[in-house]
Amino acid sequence: MINRKNWKISKVYLEYRQNIDLISHGSILVESTHIRHILEWADETSFHKADKIRPSLPEYMLNARLDGEQGRLSEMHIKKTLATTRRLFIWMIENYSEYRMIKQSWINTIKPRRLETQPKKSEAVSLEEIRRIAYAPVENLVEKRIRAAAVFWFLSGVRVGAFVTLPIKAVNIESRVILQHPNLGVKTKNRKYGDTNLLNIPDLLAVVREWDEVVRAILPENGYWFSPFSPDTGEIDIHVKKIGEHREALARKNLRAWLDKVELPYHSPHKFRHGHIQYGLARSRTVADYKAVSLNVMHASMEITDEIYSRLDDKEVRIRIEQLGQEKRVTGNASEDLFAMFQEFLEWQKTKKV
């Protein structure tokens, strides 16, 4: 049975995260799942005595599934749950004197255990795949809209939650700039502000531009770029002023239905974001290029970009190592460029340690 006081303070914590830290509704739902793990782990034991609970939370989380399925939880889910736990206990210490006996040294032990796992393949939409999607046939406005959306996701790396709330005035295809500004109604992660640049790939931009011209001819600038349709006419609905909570689900549903119809493999919207980032990282030649990719997708740091998106598959590792083994004569400007890039990398490493 879950300790009632633990439950009540967890509820206050989530309200704090929503109203003070201003994290998004989606992030609140995710952290609520993390909190459920913590509460079930503690069971009847008060959080005051959390350091005495056995098994420890990192050990408990290895098989703490909530869906009734068998098997281990993903490393990422465990890592994020433990991060939520650390924030929760630090918050309790800072805000409630009765929890100040909890030691920071114990909180520091709430970290993932080393696991023996198979290397995970990073799923991302490739340039070849997005071109097949861009050239696939469409027969109506719904299909034309989702095709443009998929290409837009790849070109921008925008999260689907922000994308479905973009007003037309936040999209400038000619300058290839997208304004991810919460004051325009865009629902970004953690209410971050950012200007996102579209990749300059002309044939893909043509698909996005075609849809852009359609919506601008019908809707005002505060209308949605991922425009709502009338269920009666199947045409763009000019009367819709506000979209519902399930807009992301609609985008996924539309994407799956259309890709199935044109016999192309389905990827979730986030895998188009992965594709954008990996496309950029693969073409980065300097640390400044790398940082530009990270900033463009509104990551808090380059470490996040590197940790999640810069993995190479076995084939690419082999190709790159073979290339390193090939003797090439480096002279003139090439030598200077390599030296400059190495110096830039060393400077970046210094900033990481500060």
**Residue fraction in strands:** under 5%
Which residue ranges are poorly predicted, with pLDDT under 50 across at least 5 consecutive positions?
Answer: 328-332
The top-level CATH class of the largest domain is: Mainly Alpha
Cα-atom Rg, whole angstroms?
24 Å
Order of helices and strands: HHHHHHHHEEEHHHHHHH
Q: What is the CATH superfamily of the largest domain?
A: Intergrase catalytic core
The helicity comes to: 40-55%
How confident is the prediction overall: mean pLDDT? 86
In DSSP terms, counting alpha (H) and pi (I) runs of 4 or more, how many helices?
15
Protein structure class: mainly alpha
> Could you give the distance between the termini?
45 Å
Question: What strand line-up does the widest sheet have?
Answer: 1-2-3
CATH architecture of the largest domain: Orthogonal Bundle
Features:
single chain, about 350 residues, mainly alpha, DNA polymerase, domain 1, hpI Integrase, Chain A, 3 domains, three-stranded antiparallel β-sheet, 15 helices, about 55% helix, globular
Q: How would you describe this structure to a colleague?
A:
The chain has 354 residues and is mainly α. It folds into three domains: 4-107, DNA polymerase, domain 1 (Orthogonal Bundle); 127-273, Intergrase catalytic core (hpI Integrase, Chain A, Orthogonal Bundle); 312-354, no CATH class. 54% of the residues lie in helices and 3% in strands. The protein contains 15 helices and three strands. It has helices at 4-19, 25-42, 57-60, 75-95, 104-107, 127-135, 141-156, 160-163, 202-218, 247-261, 269-282, 287-296, 302-309, 314-325, 332-353, and strands spanning 171-172, 177-180, 194-197. A three-stranded antiparallel beta sheet has the order 1-2-3, with no helix packed on it. Strand 1 and strand 2 (177-180) form a beta hairpin. The longest helix is centred in the C-terminal third of the chain and has 22 residues, at 332-353. The chain is globular. Mean pLDDT is 86; it is low at 328-332.
